[in-house]
Each structure stands twice: as structure tokens, then as C-alpha cells.
């Protein structure tokens, strides 16, 4: 397909594929698939990549109109699995979701697609709202990372935003397929963060990303203090492995302090004074874990595996 044909196709009515990696997610997946069917602009294709153990296919995966690829649990890779699915998808716009992210209304998908009318936009991601069962800590994380104001970010914005320039989440994000293909889709064998690494390449090549605050999904996790520790250990590992990207975009200096101040302010406004000690403990755990993760090469591999949320990565990775 020529570049002109690609433009003409995008200018008309591009086909949309929704790609969802899933594992043991029958309960929430049923809700997600039902919500996608109700969209004002429903997807042209839904492609599931199921890595559930065992031979039995979960009931929602057998839903009419849903195409399924089965892989062994050990084969799952954040970037590699999504690249494999993207190559097989038929859509011109690829929307990536996770099995526990549910559209908040019938317009979520249509709104996420609107920025692609701008030729500069290669990727867009929506707002993640806390679920009904979210703790105040889970709620604050979503409020902090996903504000109510939409924005477009480009390469030049790295000077003021630093590493936040490449913030995106494949829990609800869309990409132009031909642009992804031209730049190698998603990198494989990362502990996570395949979305940010890909976005960094797209921005460097002159494209932009749109954050669409009115394209919303419900998606949050009620992590324990120990789970927060493991998550932030993995963030430190990711940043250590991506030192080149940090050099080009900048470090997350100052973001941690703003986050802590914001969380304490929310607890005080809500008069949740008894949760202030837990807030301090959580943020101390995150700070410690992040710095340990950045220095993971000095730790015994077995210890790193115990500290990590993504233990399978340590078994499959040569790092």
C-alpha cells in the first residue's frame, strides 16, 4: 500500500481492530466484550490473545464475532504478544485494551478515535477512572495520572515534561497500524513498558500522541503495600534497562514529590486522617523499591525475582 493510499484509507472510514491479551479473565472479560458491543462506533474486529493455562477455552472467548489466538502461558510477552496480534489484525487503527478495562459509556471508543483526523497523531489513549471498588489510594493514582483535561504531546514537549512525554497505557490506547509497522511495532522482552518505548520512537520520528480525557474506561487495582513495592521495583528495573530513553526524554525527577503531596492533600480533604500513616508507608515502600530496581544488576537474580511483580520475566529474560 502506498503512502497516498494509506492517507486516503485513513481519511475515509478506517477499520478498527480491538486487541485484548487475556489470562484467566472470564468474569471481567464478559463485561468488557458486552460493553464493546454497545459502543456507538463498535469495532470491526475483536482479537483476543488467550494465555490461560489448560486446554479449555473460557466461555467469553468463544463469543460470536471474536477471533481468538491461543498461546501457552510461558509464551506471553508484553511487547512480543501484542506485536504478534497486531500483525494479524485487519484494522487500520489498532486499539489495545486489557481484560479488566471496561468502557465507561457508549462513546468511549468513538472519542478515542477522533484525534486520528489529525495526520500528526500516531497514537491516542484514554482516561482511566477508578472502579467502584477502588480504595482511596487506587483512586488517587488514577486521578493523578489521568486528569480531566485532554492534551496533545509531541517531541518538543520533552523539554518541559521529561519522561512524562511518553506516558501512555495499553490498557486503552489506539495506534495507526501502518505507523506501528514502519517502526517495528512493540519491543519484546521488556519487564513492561512496551507502550512507552514505542511511543518514544514515534515521537522522535515527528508524530504526536493525544490524551483523550473524555474517552473513559473503568480500570484500577487495589494493590497492597507489598504489591506496590513489587510494582515500583519493576518500574526501577524498566528505567534501568531504558537508560537511553531516559537520556533523550529526561528522568522522572520531581514527579514523586508531587504525587506524595497530592495524595496527602486528597486524604486531608476527605478527612481520612487515619490513612496518613499508610500513605507514608506506601510511598516509602515505592521510593525504596524504585531505587532498588534501578540497581537490580547489583542484586542476586533470585532476590530480584522475589522482589518483582513480573517474576516470569526473570525466568525468560537473559537480563
Verbal overview:
The chain is α/β, with parallel strands linked by helices. It folds into two domains: 3-218, Spore Coat Polysaccharide Biosynthesis Protein SpsA, Chain A, CATH 3.90.550.10; 225-309, no CATH class. It has helices at residues 3-11, 26-37, 78-88, 108-113, 136-145, 158-161, 177-182, 194-204, 225-241, 243-249, 255-269, 276-294, 301-307, 311-316; strands spanning 16-22, 45-50, 66-70, 93-97, 102-103, 121-129, 151-153, 172-176, 208-218. Strands 1, 2, 3, 4, 5, 6, 7, 8 and 9 form a nine-stranded mixed sheet that branches. α2 links the parallel β1 (16-22) and β2. α11 runs antiparallel to α12 (276-294). It is globular. The chain starts with a helix and ends with a helix. The model is unreliable at 1-11 (pLDDT under 50).
Instruction: Quickly count the helices.
Output: 14
- Morphology call: globular
- CATH second-level architecture of the largest domain: Alpha-Beta Complex
Secondary-structure-derived class:
alpha/beta
Radius of gyration: 19 Å
Gap from first CA to last CA: 38 Å
Strand content: 15-25%
Short descriptors:
Spore Coat Polysaccharide Biosynthesis Protein SpsA, Chain A; 319 residues; 2 domains; disordered N terminus; alpha/beta; nine-stranded mixed beta sheet
Chart the SSEs and their pairings.
Blueprint: H1 3-11, E1 16-22, H2 26-37, E2 45-50, E3 66-70, H3 78-88, E4 93-97, E5 102-103, H4 108-113, E6 121-129, H5 136-145, E7 151-153, H6 158-161, E8 172-176, H7 177-182, H8 194-204, E9 208-218, H9 225-241, H10 243-249, H11 255-269, H12 276-294, H13 301-307, H14 311-316
Parallel strand pairs: 1-2, 1-4, 2-3, 6-9
Antiparallel strand pairs: 4-8, 5-9, 6-8, 7-9
Helix pairs in contact: 5-11, 9-12, 11-12
